[in-house]
Amino acid sequence: MASAMSGQSPASAAAVAAAAVLVLTVALVLAGGVEAKSKQKTCDKGWECKGSIYCCNETISDFFQVYQFENLFSKRNSPIAHAVGFWDYHSFIVASSEYQPLGFGTTGGKEMGMKEVAAFLGHVGSKTSCGYGVATGGPLAWGLCYNHEMSPSQSYCSQDYLYPCTPGVDYFGRGALPVYWNYNYGIIGDGMKVDLLNHPEYLEQNATLAFQSAMWRWMNPMKKKQPSAHDVFVGNWKPTKNDTLSKRLPGFGATMNVLYGDQICGQGFVDSMNNIISHFQYYLDLMGVGRQSSGDNLDCAEQEPFNPSYHDAST
């Protein structure tokens, strides 16, 4: 009746309906194709990297092998080292398996992955070194000498509502990127799903956890309104106009700003900053990438801190 009222025969109405179904079908197929293209491929590469677009790249153990780890930290098991037998390649790779699916060492292809590993270990090596000017092999060879602060000057306990200090527990520096203060142990412990607030000693007893705590800090912002060290290094972070005016730009220099703020940055070419840069470039050389690939914005000498510190809370 409807077709008769519109002046169409039943046959022509059926043809119009069929055409409409065909158009709808084609539209749905095309939409499905666009959606399929928009979904990026994920990969599984065994225990080390699963279910992530980043797992489709070479993983850390593909380009950073045991002999390179030994070269970078050649003095870590010397008799005078303070953590003999603690740090090892296997613990590093096991720890990284948690973060490679999130892009740690797997973002941007092989060269960027190697550079990120060198950058991360540059911080680790400089913060755990017991090398000195006339040390055998030079001071840069002494990374991973410590796994905890040797002579704490305080307990690093601060009043905090979310992460109150556990009675009898001290929160001095521990780990591959030494963690200080109760609230930092609490934040990182929550992120790792490990009770570091009540048991900070885990970071000096378990090398995998010691590396993981450092990687968690590398991959996550520790303070509001600032990026992660990972994002500023691999180029995921886009600086605002205020960042640019504050001379905060993507690169290795900004990783120091994220991790240490005004303890190191914005003070000119101080020794503490130069030491971290030297470790990064030394490791680039030993990994075969070369310091010529250090990238732009290598230092943070003139960078304003993301978050000025009110006490020694950023490490």
Automatic annotation (TrEMBL):
Q: What is the name of the protein in this document? A: chitinase
* Cysteines joined through disulfide linkages: C157-C165, C265-C300
Instruction: Give start and end of each Glycoside hydrolase family 19 catalytic domain.
Output: 68-300
Q: Taxonomically, what lineage is the organism?
A: Eukaryota, Viridiplantae, Streptophyta, Embryophyta, Tracheophyta
Kindly list the GO molecular function terms attached to this UniProt entry.
Answer: endochitinase activity
Extract the CDD domains matched here: chitinase_GH19
In its keyword annotation, does this UniProt entry include Zinc-finger? no
Provide the alphabetized UniProt keywords: Carbohydrate metabolism, Disulfide bond, Glycosidase, Hydrolase, Polysaccharide degradation, Signal
Q: Does this entry carry the keyword Hydrolase?
A: yes
* EC number(s) reported in the record: 3.2.1.14
Q: Which reaction does it catalyse?
A: Random endo-hydrolysis of N-acetyl-beta-D-glucosaminide (1->4)-beta-linkages in chitin and chitodextrins
What Pfam families does this protein's entry cite? Glyco_hydro_19 (PF00182)
Q: Which GO terms describe its biological process?
A: cell wall macromolecule catabolic process; chitin catabolic process; polysaccharide catabolic process
